[in-house]
Amino acid sequence: xxxxxxxxxxxxxxxxxxxxxxxxxxxxxxxxxxxxxxxxxxxxxxxxxxxxxxxxxxxxxxxxxxxxxxxxxxxxxxxxxxxxxxxxxxxxxxxxxxxxxxxxxxxxxxxxxxxxxxxxxxxxxxxxxxxxxxxxxxxxxxxxxxxxxxxxxxxxxxxxxxxxxxxxxxxxxxxxxxxxxxxxxxxxxxxxxxxxxxxxxxxxxxxxxxxxxxxxxxxxxxxxxxxxxxxxxxxxxxxxxxxxxxxxxxxxxxxxxxxxxxxxxxxxxxxxxxxxxxxxxxxxxxxxxxxxxxxxxxxxxxxxxxxxxxxxxxxxxxxxxxxxxxxxxxxxxxxxxxxxxxxxxxxxxxxxxxxxxxxxxxxxxxxxxxxxxxxxxxxxxxxxxxxxxxxxxxxxxxxxxxxxxxxxxxxxxxxxxxxxxxxxxxxxxxxxxxxxxxxxxxxxxxxxxxxxxxxxxxxxxxxxxxxxxxxxxxxxxxxxxxxxxxxxxxxxxxxxxxxxxxxxxxxxxxxxxxxxxxxxxxxxxxxxxxxxxxxx
Length: 536
What we know:
Pdz3 Domain; alpha+beta; 2-enoyl-CoA Hydratase, Chain A, domain 1; globular; 536 residues; 23 strands
């Protein structure tokens, strides 16, 4: 291993000098100046490896030096180890082979949140609340969530053995499951939230997102949808081509979607709506928050700039740097910033990152008043002349704050109390109707359960649930968890919508969205390419 990592050290510093000179199987020529600096670097690596007071590997030295070098560039240029690179590519695929369960860590245990309909796990009767204690003979007690998920995945038609601990059973269930293809969906939810309103939640942008959105829209139209609410909250982005495909479903043919500008000639690109999808022809409202970033900001910015919908929530993250991913030696990769994103009106999506601390840790929380536009002079105009601002993500047309859970409810959520209670409750009282609502007596049962489980004393529970807001939240959460187990996550999500302040604010904006659409339709032609010039 010594010689390969000495070679890797040279390649790493070459990368630093020529800013990503390793492009697939081509390596750019190294200048005389670069050779001199490489000699210094390799001497230093060799000296530290041989003379440092503790053992240190070439791999650790090289990886640390790469990370240090990239830190001088920008927050989003990232070196990807072979494991991280493989994981990134897996996440971007439309499917994988596994069991078909959504899992999470609950009280430090690998817990089934919900089995997916029609998958091997559902066919074998795996339930919400089941704890996976063993995978192929190995305890999950010290596994991270990612490690456990990787062990559950595998090649098609291979077997995995798991042990299930289920409440009410004295012995674990021993199951052997054959892995099958599991769709990796990014349209997590698509349902009619009321008789006229369709709701779509897009979690990120991967290989199948464009097709998923098109199918969801067609299905909702068939159910009578007359207006559409698109939820991009906490959507961190993903593949640019998929963001363009989705935007094409909301914009008139020929409308600018996004523009990229960088240092090299090929970084200047313009992307327009191709008109490959039917005209949506209905009012649209888009939900965003501080977790909305990158490709999700491209979509929301294009809809806003072309006046095709109302944006509601709080200002988005402001991630407008374009990463091009290159494969490197040893299965590693480099996500290198090569350009910046600009919306159709010419707004720069990227916010200031001169201070990494402020960039990552000093963001406004959803429950605080949003900041003013980052660049008060960066004033731009939509197609209809509405003012929008650049340099700091996408500022919503209407500001709406997130729901703040009462403190005692937050305490119970952190202890997984609602999920565990719902598992116990539905074992005794089967929930067979999607319209099921817990009776007030369920709250009394919940209070007794909290005391029996030693999550709180009777005095603490009584005091914590004395407030009507806490009681309403608790009943709504119990209902959602019970419906999750009985009918899947979409049923539970729909149950929680009634208490989602941002979502409820969005539902009140469709009259304004309809008026905006009518004005847009009166506009003779959509803008062609944006000039990119600020009005201010």
